[in-house]
Amino acid sequence: MSLKDIDTGIKKIKSMLISDMEKQLKLLGIGYEKIYSFEEINDIFDINRKYKRKQVLDVLMNECEENEIGLLLSDYKIREKNLKKYIRECSFELLNKLCAIRLLEVRNMIAPTVKKYKEYGDKSEVQKNLGQVSYSLLDRDPYDGMKFAIELTLRELSTQIKVMFDVNSEHSLLFPDSKTLREIIKVLLDEIPEEDWKRDDFIGWTYQYFVEDEKEEIEQADTPEEIAAKTQVYTYDWIVKYIVDNTLGAYWNEIISGQRPQQSVETIKLIDPSCGSGSFLVYAFDKFYEIYKDEGKVQEKDIPNYIISKNLYGLDIDERAVQLTALNLYIKAKERNRNMQIDKFNIICTDSRIKQEVNIDKYLYSLSIEPKLREVIKNIVQQAFNYMRENNVLGSLMKVEEVINPLIDEYIGGRRRLSIREVQSKKQKIRANEDQITLFSPEVEQLSLDTIDEIRYFESREEFVDYLRQKILDCVDYVVTKINKDNDINSRMFAKDLDRGSNFIGAMMQEYEIVVGNPPYLGNKKMGEFLREKLKGSYDISKNDLYSAFIERSTNVLFNRGYLGLLTPDTYLFISVYKKLRSYLLNSFYIKRVAMLGKRTFKGVNVSVSILILTNESCDGKESKFFDLADCENQEEA
Asked: What is the pTM of this model?
């Protein structure tokens, strides 16, 4: 099936949106040539226009680099750069939302929102229903109800996938005029065939085609947006299947054959640290579904929620990629069970841009938490965010656990575990005194919870860290909920970044049985100076390319005897600058197989690639397999 219509359609819509967003900003007195002062627009703009203008300017100031904030109004180059970035993000977000609506209505998962029917007077079903509810709502509406219909559907969907459909985000402030919206919908309905919308890989190609023309424009990548655009490559389905089958599939086969200890499926965690639009996670969803049915402990109607909320984790520096991954998984889950609700998406954008010191003391003190634990949570959050603020450009490569672990070790160091007799004695004493005292004193390794009935004792450091991880997520979620009650764009942006950062902290406080992916390829000559220096400081043996740093990083989060499967360039296998990385891999892991694919794999990408499958265990004389498929005409069949 040809991809030409998708390619042409996505690029056409992108062009229309960017052009229209520029016009919307000019109507707010914001342009490349000049940003008009408040005095110049005060007597011309009505109150709604002034408010929207203020919100947009707040976002622009917030998204500027710290050294650029004071120059946004006076420096043309800085103004142009930041306006183009904002326009791109607004355009990309709206394109994602419109494509998502079309994808869902084609699959009969939502009421038709943009698809028009002759019997409804050339309106969509949602448009027609709005007109029946309130004729005055649509009276003299230039959009004829289509904007209301889109916003209504987005609000309903945001309750299930907020990361994708948030109508109050900073990039939802601009909306195209009615003429542009009609032209965009015409492309969605008439120029991209309905059969294309039914493709499982449509979302991946949407992402690929949106950023495709930006790659060559970027000489050196030094920001999250530039890195994402410069390194985006869509991974073909057969490669994804091979890697997941030989990692997750192999791991489960070893459990059921007795080669590994028994383990419940819901405790197996798989992560893609550079998930893009989610191709690895989407196939892993199907694989986990088979495994849950094989195990037979979870009702089939509940399996989709279990997979998404317990098994699958995805990280990416690009917010748009994270949105598309969440949508991909949502569609997968709904195809299995239309009525199910998802408890939590573990798809995390690592681009947390909090510029100021994070202080959540006043919120923490309103929670019922043991005082010493409250202090540890406060210190972890503050120091982790300080680290992320300095190293944000590294994205998933940030080693935030190096900040967290010393704080945890200091808290629990030198304490021993209570005996059963001591546990019972302590409980009886608390009940007798009706007091709430801590069991985490200097000579005790345990921790009391909020009430006597909730007192728990931790058998290991890992068990305590898992508890602490959840407490951090709960506390920050409480803080984010409080902050979001402020109807202020700056507060909402702070809350979003706080939520992103805490979820990333949580993701890095655990290890993963399976790590898979196709990490970004970017040699140090194509990196900006800031990124190059940050990589050099954190990844001495793998600093020459982003992909090699991702290999090293992926091994850091791999559970004991866990599987890693990556598609990467093959230069780390041969050239001298990777000698230390090769030694590290050979001495620390069991390389099960390497498939050399050569330069035939990606059209238009002149990179020789290979697939690496290894496990986090000693080789101990085990056999490794190497396959040279570089000259094979049909690598998929081979």
From this structure: 0.87
117 DSSP β-pair partners: 123
Helix, strand and coil in the chain, % to nearest 5: 55, 10, 35
Q: Which two tokens stand for residue 244?
A: 């997941």
E strands within 548-621?
Answer: 558-569, 590-598, 609-615
Query: In the structure encoding, which two tokens stand for residue 338, read together?
Result: 């239309």
For residue 633, the model assigns a pLDDT of: 66
Residue 324 to residue 277: CA distance in whole angstroms: 5
What is the pLDDT, as a whole number, of residue 445?
A: 33
Q: Which residues of the chain have pLDDT under 50?
A: 414-419, 434-456
* Element (DSSP H or E) covering residue 83: helix 76-106
pLDDT at residue number 455: 39
Q: What are phi and psi of 570, to 5 degrees?
A: -95, 10
Give the gyration radius of the chain's Cα atoms.
Answer: 26
Residues 470 and 467: their CA atoms lie apart, in Å, by 5
The CA distance from 606 to 602, in Å, is: 8
CA-to-CA dists, residue 296 to 34, 244, 267, 269, 290, angstroms: 64, 21, 15, 18, 10
Q: What is the reported pLDDT for 485?
A: 76
Q: What is the pLDDT of residue 544?
A: 93
Coil, strand, or helix at residue 203?
A: helix
3-state SS track over 427-496: HHHHHHHCCCCCCCCCCECCECCCCHHHCECCCCHHHHHHHHHHHHHHHHHHHHHHHCCCCCHHHHHHHH
Distance between alpha carbon 131 and the CA centroid of its chain, in Å?
A: 37
